[in-house]
Amino acid sequence: MRLRAAGLLLCVAVLAVSVLLSLSIGNQHFGAHDVYLALADFSGSDNDRVIRYLRVPRTAAGLLAGAALGLAGALMQGVTRNPLADPGILGVNAGAALAVVGAIGVLGVHSLTGYVWFAMGGALVATVVVYLVGAIGRGGATPVKLALAGAAISALLGSVTSAITLLDLSTLNEFRFWVVGSLTLATGPVIGQAVPFIAVGIVLALVLGRSLNQLALGDELARSLGTRVMLVRVMAGLAVVVLAGTATAIAGPIGFLGLAVPHVARTLVGADYRWILPWSMVLAPVVLLLADVVGRLVARPSELQVGIITAVIGAPVFIALVRRRRMAAL
Amino acid sequence: MRTLRVGPVSTRVDVASVVCSLVAWLLTLAVGALSLTLGDYRIPLPLVLETLSGHGTLILNDIVVNGRLPRVLVGIGVGTAFAVSGAIFQRLARNPLVSPDLIGVNAGAALAAVLMITVLGSGWIPAGALLGSLLSAIVVYLLAYRDGISGYRLVLVGIGVTAIISSVTAYLLTLADIYAAKSAVQWLAGSLAGRTWTHVVLIGAALVVLLPAALAGARQLRLLELGDDLARTLAGRVELSRGLLILVGVALAALATAAAGPIAFVALVAPQLARRLVAERVAGLLAAGALGALLVVVSDLVAREIFAPTQLPVGIVTAFLGAPYLLILMARANRIGRGG
């Protein structure tokens, strides 16, 4: 208990370092002192402007999207008792993406406060459909059935998305930068708009830790321990939709972060969701910010978008999980 | 199932499957003929036939023989190829939801094609797509191999590999100029627009070589469906025949993708339709192929005419037709406990 709390504090410290790295490393490098001055004593110099108007929003986007995706992944794995659950794999991101493209291309919505609702709506519909299709039949929502349903529905949503982008060149132009998953899309005010959504999602998620532990025992045992199983599922689903939907709206569909981080957390702190959830919430932005810093460095003077880095790091984790001899349910 | 004897040679013939294939081929021909008459410039059927027999005017010859005919023929060819490939994979994995779309074949082709469109120039698309899909299929197979191949592991590894490949594809799209990006997205959707006789030759040659191979492997498929242990006792080299069948399936999907882009859901839906119609437990390869051809030719006609003069890529139409069917299929497959 004390060890896990200390570890969590350590993670927060690592997160602080990642934030500092994300603020200072890039096409131009800045020292900690420059960063401090830009934040505390803004002089309007070029350096200060780069830090304040480019690096700070980018870092904030990474913090929010990372925390949201880490929690969403942990929640999904807990509720479905499925080691392969991830907003990307189960089609939640594809649903949000389609809704955003529809909002941009068909309805002409261009502000985040406009399309965050569409993203959440799309995420909600995709989640419900994937879960319903995957849960029918013998054994309920097994990992394989859910992953297949998610892949199939992502494929479907993807072709509708490309139909819309093909009919309108400017939508395609906006969309192709968004769909890779990048922290540079959202500007300061837009990120401000996302904060309340993420905050609600975080509170909702952290409250559920104890109930998820009981769900892990199986529905019947959980019920006999006094857990209202249906209520927990609905609350968790709601939190996933808010978190994954908002994260997708600010940073595009970033895959595999929500898959890999909860597994790392589980390895470190054990099967207790009261700890897995906060650890995932802190570790995921560490990974996302560091991936983003790596993306800035590997293709200089250009950049690799963070979504590509997370896919390249995260997909092998997924494949390794699949290759395990017995894919035990959580 | 009837036994057919011609002198000393005898073979078992599935009557329902043959009838179903014949009907589907006749319908395909009819729809194909119809699409030769339709377009910006309508040509009555007798005139089309006259042109096809070599007695048309120069301009009719250009429209029908060099414009519309290759498009229809490529549609028939890739429809057949995708469907047969899908049938092979579904039967190998013993899972109705498995298709080359899901196990990385299309993603590899797509990445290679986008690379060609944005970097090397479009002339190289078929070769690149072929290479790309073969490479990704090999990677998926190797990563999924562990004391043999399980259908589920193949699919799940395919999903993971597809994710990496698609993120690189998306990255390439952000580097391209917007018109190249548009033609890449068009290709990615699967399109029969502007197909020439080169494409017809490509897919025709592929079918001539691979279709007999697939049919020869059908017997092995039946054995493999009994499960590895039983198949091993009955037939021996399970891994070899499975490997060859996978190779044929991948090559069919790869060549079809090279000719027309990754047309969505054909490989998934056609074998299932065949299974329903033929009322056999497994999808007959020929019936699946015939229905695949029909599906693509009809979808392309719809794609050309629905927003005319704007043409949609055929893959969008097959996606709209295929997706609801896929959902029903998944629900059914899961309910009877065969979805995984």
Give a nutshell description of this structure.
By secondary structure, chain A is an all-alpha fold. In chain A, 77% of the residues lie in helices and 0% in strands. The model of chain A has no long low-confidence stretch (mean pLDDT 84).
- How can the largest sheet of chain A be summarized? none
Low confidence ranges of chain B: none
**What is the residue-mean pLDDT of chain A, rounded to a whole number?**
84
Distance between the termini of chain A: 22 Å
The CATH architecture of chain B can be named as Orthogonal Bundle
Oligomer state of the chains in this structure? heterodimer
Largest interface: A-B, 52 and 53 residues
> In angstroms, what is the radius of gyration of chain A?
20 Å
Side-by-side strand order of the widest sheet of chain B: 1-2
Query: How big is the Rg of chain B?
Result: 20 Å
Major sheet of chain B, described briefly? 2 strands, antiparallel
- Beta-strand percent range of chain A: under 5%
Low-confidence stretches of chain A: none
Tally of discrete structural domains of chain A: 2
**CATH topology heading of chain B:** ABC transporter involved in vitamin B12 uptake, BtuC
CATH A-level architecture of the largest domain in chain A: Orthogonal Bundle
Helix content of chain A: over 70%
Characterization of this structure:
Chain B: Belongs to the binding-protein-dependent transport system permease family. FecCD subfamily. Chain B: Pfam families: FecCD. Chain B: This is Iron ABC transporter permease. Chain B: InterPro entries: ABC_BtuC-like, ABC_transptr_permease_BtuC. Chain B: The chain crosses the membrane at residues 12-35, 72-90, 102-120, 127-145, 151-176, 197-218, 244-270, 282-302, 314-331. Chain A: InterPro entries: ABC_BtuC-like, ABC_transptr_permease_BtuC. The complex is a heterodimer of chains A (330) and B (340). Chain A has 330 residues and is mainly alpha-helical. Chain A folds into 2 domains: 16-51, no CATH class; 78-323, ABC transporter involved in vitamin B12 uptake, BtuC (Orthogonal Bundle). Chain A is built from 14 helices and no strands. In chain A, helix 8 runs antiparallel to helix 11 (229-251). The model of chain A has no long low-confidence stretch (mean pLDDT 84). Helix content of chain B is 75%, strand content 3%. Chain B is mainly alpha-helical. Chain B contains 13 helices and 2 strands. Chain B has a single domain (2-335), classed as ABC transporter involved in vitamin B12 uptake, BtuC, CATH 1.10.3470.10. Chain B has a two-stranded antiparallel sheet. In chain B, helix 4 (105-120) runs parallel beside helix 10 and helix 12 (285-305) crosses helix 13.
